[in-house]
């Protein structure tokens, strides 16, 4: 069967809860991992299809085709990528920032924001527990996923700086943090299986939107949060790889090139269009 990844955070449940609940059958084998692991596995050929960091796609666009209508993004606040720090981001030049090893887009997006808006490149120090630095003495850390949500709840008021909000303040745009990609050789050799996955993802996304209470219950069973959190959180996220999401992502790539974080702006090359009815 075709081998597919899924992100091991609660932010994927508005899509994958349909598969977990048996409401939509997934036509392949699913394997969970953090973004950087999925990035590496797809590039190595250990997976055929996966959500990957949008920055990883940008660096390896020649290897992938994108699914045209699904992403993990946000119009403004993302609520699961934070710089947690007593000092505001503008004052972090020359300050070590403990950062997760799980992120490609988050750390490069924050670096792009710092370079463009504040005039410095962050000094990242990778850590297995970035939040420990903040808990010890308020030192800055960069977090993604459920660890970032934990960091938000652990932070003092005003210390959790939402990277999506910072990006929107800089550009007025949203962002696509993860995109779904298929290896080009797989798309060529196994087109019917790839299209079956694309159809299943569209159906699952629709099911998630129509059954948000079930998605929230699934999220609470995995990572309990305060009442109302997941409803607000999922309302801030955008799972449609629409024109606005693509525009924000293109601007990110352009600024990343400007500041030496990326070699060139990649083209978005998509799977062959397939019928959208399910």
Condensed summary:
The protein is α/β, with parallel strands linked by helices and 278 residues long.
Main traits of this protein?
single chain, about 280 residues, alpha/beta, D-Maltodextrin-Binding Protein, domain 2, 5-stranded mixed sheet, 4-stranded antiparallel sheet, about 45% helix, globular, disordered C terminus
3D structure, described in words:
It contains twelve helices and eleven strands. With 278 residues, the chain is α/β, with parallel strands linked by helices. It has two domains: 156 residues, D-Maltodextrin-Binding Protein, domain 2 (3-Layer(aba) Sandwich), CATH 3.40.190.10; 91 residues, 3-Layer(aba) Sandwich (D-Maltodextrin-Binding Protein, domain 2), CATH 3.40.190. The strands form three sheets. Strands 7-6-8-5-9 form a five-stranded mixed β-sheet, sandwiched between helices. Strands 3-10-4-11 form a four-stranded antiparallel β-sheet. The chain has a two-stranded parallel ribbon with strand order 1-2. The longest helix is centred in the C-terminal third of the chain and has 20 residues. 47% of the residues are buried. The C terminus is likely disordered.
């Amino acid at each position: 069967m075709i081998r597919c990844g899924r992100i091991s955070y609660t932010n994927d449940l508005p899509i994958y809860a349909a598969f977990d609940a048996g409401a939509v059958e997934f036509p392949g084998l699913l394997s969970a991992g953090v973004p950087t692991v999925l990035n590496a596995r797809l590039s190595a050929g250990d997976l055929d299809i996966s959500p990957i960091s949008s920055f990883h796609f940008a660096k390896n666009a020649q290897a992938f085709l994108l699914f045209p209508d699904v992403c993990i993004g946000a119009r403004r606040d993302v609520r699961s990528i934070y710089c947690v720090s007593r000092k505001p981001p503008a004052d972090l030049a020359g300050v070590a920032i403990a950062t997760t090893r799980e992120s490609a887009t988050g750390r490069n997006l924050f670096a792009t924001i710092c370079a463009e808006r504040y005039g410095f490149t962050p000094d990242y120090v990778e850590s297995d527990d970035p939040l420990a630095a903040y808990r010890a003495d308020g030192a800055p850390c960069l977090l993604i996923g459920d660890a970032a949500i934990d960091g938000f709840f652990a932070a003092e008021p005003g210390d959790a700086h939402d990277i999506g909000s910072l990006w929107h303040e800089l550009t007025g745009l949203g962002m696509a943090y993860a995109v779904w990609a298929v290896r080009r050789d797989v798309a060529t050799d196994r087109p019917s299986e790839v299209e079956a996955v694309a159809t299943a993802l569209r159906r699952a996304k629709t099911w998630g939107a129509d059954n948000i209470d079930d998605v929230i219950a699934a999220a609470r069973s995995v990572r309990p949060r305060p009442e109302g959190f997941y409803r607000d959180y999922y309302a801030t996220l955008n799972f449609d790889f629409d024109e606005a999401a693509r525009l924000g992502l293109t601007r990110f790539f352009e600024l990343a090139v400007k500041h030496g974080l990326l070699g060139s702006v990649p083209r978005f090359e998509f799977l062959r269009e397939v019928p959208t009815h399910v």
